[in-house]
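note to self: dont lose this again. the chain is below, predicted strucutre after it. 253 aa total, dont forget to put it in the shared folder this time
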Amino acid sequence: MAERPYIVGNWKMNGTRAMLSEARAIDRAAQRYMKVEVAVAPPYTLIHAVHKEAEQIGVGAQDCHPGAEGAHTGDINASMIADAGAKFVILGHSERRQDHGESNELINAKIESALDAGLRVILCCGETLETRDAGKAEEFVLAQLKAALPMFQDPAERLTIAYEPIWAIGTGRTATADDIAAMHGAIRGLLDETYGTEASAQVRILYGGSVKPDNAREILATPEVGGALVGGASLSAESFLGIVVGASEAEEV
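---
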């Protein structure tokens, strides 16, 4: 597995320029935890501003349009977000799949566009409660990935996977360490098949199911968990850095 855990904050539809102080605090504190790679994905309107503030952390986007240019009112393409200072983009997030009806085919097209623009990709996958209770969680998640995984020679340099069990986000239900280890192990197996064991070993698989400071260390010490995709807890520098500390402590165990 890759050497440093990767902790990524997804700010979702939150944040105005008033939140630049939080980004600044995250960036300065991250300089004390060099064993952890830290990044945030603010809304489009803040990418450039956060990029200017960042000395240590990575800055990315939450989505992009699959096209290079054209008559697509309100859309933002991969080249535009790269021009604003983004180095990566989150694609296939459950909220995009559910709220906007994004298909695996559309997500694959977005991935190709992002890679063409020189961006790294965080590809999300995850199942609903109904799918899990039907005993089809691994089958469903692996099908999502098979339909979207790009083929290239250096996956670790350009790709991160984020597993986000939809049923464990804001529902009061939590995934156990065994649940997480089983799914991450299945994803690792697919990556091995797709890219070969040596190349796959360096692709980080993040966990994205309501990670908080009080559960971060346990989750990040779970086999095949290479970091976390953090939602609400990333909006505060204090709570987000609690997760970064947990990642650093898990790395030392």
